[in-house]
Write a structure and sequence with these properties.
The structure is a homodimer of 347-residue chains. Chain A is 34% helix and 24% strand. With 347 residues, the first copy, chain A, is an alpha+beta fold. Chain A has eleven helices and 14 strands. Chain A has two domains: 147 residues, PurM-like, N-terminal domain (60s Ribosomal Protein L30, Chain: A); 179 residues, Phosphoribosyl-aminoimidazole Synthetase, Chain A, domain 2 (Alpha-Beta Complex). In chain A, the strands form three sheets. Chain A has a seven-stranded mixed β-sheet with strand order 9-11-8-12-10-13-14, with helices on both faces. In chain A, strands 3, 4, 5, 6 and 7 form a five-stranded mixed β-sheet that branches. In chain A, strand 13 and strand 14 form a beta hairpin. The longest helix of chain A is centred in the middle third of the chain and has 18 residues. Strand 3 of chain A pairs antiparallel with strand 2 of chain B, so a sheet runs across the interface.
Chain lengths: 347, 347
């Protein structure tokens, strides 16, 4: 390893660090009335607009492993997972607030990397960082992001709006982020056993990218506007398809039939699942961290999505009594269970 | 210690825990359009209102010590410190979002205690908990709170509005929270040396209360409305009077003369300072965590505050060239320095 420059955070102090990290911010949105530097941030939206706000905390050793997650990617991802929640309301993210706690093992340069990723996400998605704080931790890195966005009241899509006979759709493909994680953890184990062996991620850039640098589906929300399509319910896929379907069913008081053959899974993910002796469908159902949008639409809107390569119709909503079930390729019926990403990971 | 009921968090799971912690919420404000249970929360304020948002993270071992901070008080305080930031903008807090990461050493009952404090603060200050998440940590407890509030644009008070010749005022008294902390830490050391000795906090309920269960100055903001008084600049005292004065001066491009004899210090705090061989003024200047409001007003508004026991005029603003200085009782002049609470604490 090269002898890299290391500036101790103590040389800047807390206020110095905040200034250092935020002095180049240029607010992008007219609604960002007051950003970093006061007690709180002020935003003002147009009349008729509603403010959407969401928050997520990422803890080192629980949500990420710095052995294979570059800090820049981590900063990017910590923003994206929050924006994904705003999009899942059919809203437009406008502002974020970021709080970070760090132990003294992190240098200013490390924080620069983290914020480089944060600002890259801000630029990509057109949001403003308007506040936050940094503090110490005894051990490890903790990142808490709050995102705020706007939507006209009549555009907001909740989890609770699905009805019987509606179509269940999902954007993109599922399971890749989880398989990317499996690959990264395998290479980490190999490296820990023999540090001379370099990680072999060749040909796996798609699934590794899905894990390390996920994107939120801004494009799908924009597509809805172009298509004049308003989903009846929506949620983003963070814990796994199965868990999210159960949320929609629970809050909409419906059942659901999910068809295994319709679940979109990328070829690279499928191949990696076989390498790991995992069922690709199980990875899609329980893997999580895909940050795709799962939503329901009225049957009359089917024409608007049927030929779109970014959207798959994967099932239909039924009455609550019928429950939420998976119809397998071999036509067996299994109830969906909320295994979730963390539980799966600990197997 | 009694054999208390302990329910492992694993028996509820993440979603079960969130439901358990939030199922009794009753939204208080019409502007809370959608609370816990969807991807994000939705708020809508009246036309002409601006949304104020602020966030703080509290980390075990850094910001609090569970050896002497009851979880209920911690929950209460974690909300109050954020509301204090909204009041410091002359705004009215309306909603909070709380994210918590916990290690498996915490039980459901422990989380209940924490949230009992959170909800007590919500009730006291009329705010709604509208979202958040809980996750695991490898070690310790981390709490991140985001508060949102509203204010008419023309009512918002920034740090940057102070002008030469204006009066510098502060609510309540200063230094007590710091001295309460000193006392709690002394009793902790005594207890660790000999666990048979029970903490002696007798006659110290004021300073201990100021540390463990601070209040935000909602009453002062309401008083401003009653008095038809708008401060020209304002900040809450979280890091210590000295540091906050320097923030006002820096952002307003002014200097300041602070008079030692005018700094409000409670008798109990003064007595404890002498016990610890500390200078009470130094405790007020650098102690922090008082959550009082420091603000400037035009001289023509002096009549409105001069007889109010909750407000002290402690100095006046000068030109930037004159710097921010303390005039001691013996008429010496010292430049104010931003020692800050954390630095002080580590002495």
């Amino acid at each position: 390893m090269e002898n890299q420059l290391r500036t101790e955070i103590t040389t800047l102090g807390e206020f110095g660090l905040i200034k250092h990290l935020t002095e180049n911010i240029q607010l992008q949105n007219p609604s960002s009335k007051l950003g970093v530097g006061d007690d709180a941030a002020v935003i003002q939206y147009d009349e008729g607009m509603q403010t959407i706000v969401t928050s997520d905390m990422l803890v080192e050793g629980i949500h990420f492993d710095l052995m294979y997650v570059p800090l820049k990617h981590l900063g990017y991802k910590s923003v994206v997972v929050n924006l994904s929640d705003i999009y899942a309301m059919n809203g437009t993210p406008r502002q974020i607030i970021v709080s970070v706690a760090i132990s003294n093992r992190f240098s200013v340069e490390a924080m620069d990397d983290l914020y480089e990723g944060i600002y890259a996400a801000c630029k990509r998605y057109g949001v403003d960082l308007i506040g936050g704080d940094t503090s110490s931790s005894n051990k490890g890195l903790i990142i808490s992001v709050t995102a705020l966005g706007e939507a006209r009241e009549e555009r907001i899509v909740k989890r609770s709006g699905a009805k019987e006979n509606e179509l269940l759709c999902v954007s993109g493909d599922l399971g890749s982020a989880f398989l990317g994680l499996q690959l990264l953890e395998r290479e980490k184990r190999i490296y820990l056993e023999n540090p001379k062996i370099q990680p072999n991620l060749e040909g796996q850039s798609y699934i590794v990218g899905r894990q390390l640098k996920p994107e939120a589906r801004k494009d799908i929300i924009e597509l809805f506007q172009t298509l004049e399509l308003k989903p009846t319910s929506m949620i983003d896929v963070s814990d796994g398809l199965s868990s999210e379907i159960l949320h929609l069913c629970d809050q909409s008081q419906t059942g659901c039939r999910l068809y295994e053959e319709k679940i979109p899974i990328a070829e690279e993910a499928r191949a990696m699942a076989f390498q790991f002796n995992l069922d690709p469908t199980t990875c899609a159902l329980n893997g999580g961290e895909d940050y795709e949008l799962l939503f329901t639409i009225d049957q009359s809107d089917y024409e608007k999505v049927k030929n779109n390569p970014d959207i798959s119709v994967i099932g239909n909503m039924t009455s609550k009594e019928k429950g939420a079930v998976l119809i397998t390729r071999s036509n067996n019926i299994y109830p969906l269970t909320a295994q979730g990403w963390n539980a799966f990971r600990n197997n």
